[in-house]
Automatic annotation (TrEMBL):
This is 3'-5' exonuclease. InterPro entries: Ribonucl_H (IPR013520), RNaseH-like_sf (IPR012337), RNaseH_sf (IPR036397). GO terms for molecular function: exonuclease activity. Residues 59-240 form the Exonuclease domain. It comes from the Bacteria. Keywords: Exonuclease, Hydrolase, Nuclease. The keyword Coiled coil does not apply. The keyword Ubl conjugation does not apply. It holds the Pfam family RNase_T. PANTHER family: DNA POLYMERASE III SUBUNIT EPSILON, PROTEIN NEN2.
Amino acid sequence: MFYLAKNQLADPHIARSVGKHGNWSKRFATLAEASKYPALTTFYQKGVVAASTPIADVEMVALDFETTGLDPSRDSIVSIGLVPMSLSRIRCGGAKHWIIRPETRLHSTSVVVHGITHSAVADAPDFHTVIDNLLAALQGKVVVVHHSLIERCFLDAALRRAVQEGIEFPVIDTMALEARFSRTVWQSLRAALLGRQLNSIRLTDSRTRYHLPYYRQHNALTDALACAELLQAQCATHLTPATPVSAVWS
């Protein structure tokens, strides 16, 4: 998992890739009619839960990517990890992990971060070969990520290059939730006045606040599992099982 720098958060390429829809069910129906790629059409036809559904009743899948860099227009996905989950269970038996041959050059700076080397991807499948399985694993579920700009933008860009269609889907972003839960208006104001940094909302630091164990970072499958556990802890601490999913997704 990479984190975007502050200047990249305002990048117009990223901004236009992240649409927020008040009615995801209606949006999926519209996209299903417009989609041409079969697996993507099926993904949209499967639909999404109603916004009023209690979060305890929502089937989810935690998702994480490792990439060759931070710019989805120039960099690409090098590994994918996902773990099916709900608030009551993390289904490790259904977890999937792919190392794939990136569409763009594997930079030495990213190799240092995630440890996936040129030799590791030399004989790996390319993104085209995992698209259908990936979309099948995501369909009918709400995607859980830590920093939604990465997964949304990189998956959209990868699909546009591969099948000439992008993708839209609702996400529960544990990083955004942690900013909401751990950074009150008073804390933000106090930090600004005193010139102090706010609480870190990176995945490892966020997990520490809930006394979750430390996992080695930057493995897509491990980070997906870490994200799943973090959401469960956040919901148990700050929400109720009856909280509508619309209160936490975007």
